[in-house]
Design goal:
alpha+beta, 13-stranded mixed sheet, Aminopeptidase, single chain, about 30% helix, globular, 11 helices, 2 domains
């Protein structure tokens, strides 16, 4: 059987493979990866006659060592293909595994982590390479339902609240200017301060501007105003079949009003107008059924498994890196890789 594998770093070749895939997201594109500042974006490609597998990742240097690891971008990524993963033969999967592990060794990569895209059966490809783990559930709306049917599924109190918010004088609009992006970035950062979020959640203004680049994406920034005051907003990622609330924020003085409920309802309307099939609300922080998860579940009872993939390519080096961190590491934590706790 003839096959080949190689690495792509340039946009034309990268997006050429992504756009030929059966199903893909904004998260898989070269441009989205280029907005990441953790390391070097690269696309590993395995190709046989008749199909390919393309796996986008970020290569990061491991501090105080000559080694690297691979991680996924913020969001839902993992491998894509122009074939159904479930239809790829066991023999081809073994060849892919051998080539991928050879690539990891050549690049001096100790571990790989990725959060999988829940609407694509990537587990068939990765379960024979270290195994796939559960990360709880993620919530979505089926946009083939009518608006009336969807709202009938809302939790009763939520349904009344959305109706009341709809009757208010709030203005919902698409962001049109750099000033609006700046204002949204400010309330987003204030939200992260209030939540004591980790530094990786502090996306800057340039990041939001990049995601709204009309030459690359169809993404939108939806804002809600009370008169002249910006009170809530969300950056929507828009893919071929899916609309997603990627990052959102509410002004602190309006938290008790909860305009995010109106915003979530509005995103479902936007998705329908755009002809999308799914509005992906996501899950809780770290896969937990926390308050964020409960908020989303009030909008929909549809859930799908959320999965992550963690793989150690060099166990000996991995254990040495963990040993070097010593007592800094909490061995009870499931954080992967442990040396990056």
């Amino acid at each position: 059987m003839q096959y080949q594998s190689f690495i792509i770093r340039e946009k034309p070749e990268w997006d050429g493979y992504i756009t030929r895939s059966c199903n893909y997201e904004v998260y898989h594109t070269w441009y989205y990866h280029s907005l990441n500042r953790e390391g070097e974006p690269l696309l590993f490609v395995y190709e046989e006659a008749g199909f390919f597998i393309a796996f986008p990742m970020i290569k990061r240097r491991i501090a105080n060592s000559s080694f690297y690891d691979l991680t996924s971008v913020y969001g839902y990524a993992g491998p894509v293909s122009d074939a159904d993963f479930g239809a790829i033969t066991a023999r081809s999967l073994q060849f892919f595994k051998a080539e991928f592990c050879r690539f990891l060794t050549a690049e001096r990569c100790v571990t790989v982590f990725t959060r999988l895209y829940p609407f694509l059966a990537q587990q068939y490809l990765l379960e024979n390479i270290g195994g796939v783990s559960s990360n709880g559930s993620t919530i979505y709306m089926d946009l083939s339902f009518s608006v009336e049917e969807q709202r009938s599924r809302y939790e009763k109190r939520l349904k009344r609240q959305v109706k009341k918010l709809r009757a208010s004088n709030y203005l919902i609009k698409d962001a049109q200017s750099a000033e609006e992006i700046r204002l949204f970035t400010e309330i987003y950062h204030r939200n992260m301060d209030r939540l004591n979020a980790g530094k990786s959640y502090y996306f800057d203004e340039a990041y939001f501007t990049g995601l709204l680049n009309p030459e690359e994406f169809n993404n939108r920034l939806i804002l809600i105003y009370d008169g002249p005051e910006l009170i809530c907003g969300a950056l929507l990622l828009i893919s071929e079949h899916v609309v997603r609330n990627h990052l959102s924020a509410t002004a602190e003085k309006y938290l008790n009003v909860s305009p995010s409920k109106l915003l979530t309802d509005e995103i479902s309307m936007i998705g329908r107008r755009l002809g999308k099939k799914i509005f992906h609300l996501g899950g809780g922080v770290g896969g937990k059924e926390d308050s964020l998860f409960q908020f989303k579940r009030h909008f929909s009872d549809l859930q799908i498994a959320d999965r992550i993939w963690c793989y150690i390519n060099d166990e000996e080096v991995y254990q040495e890196l963990v040993r070097q961190r010593g007592e800094e590491i909490n061995l009870e934590s499931a954080f992967f890789p442990a040396y990056r706790q």
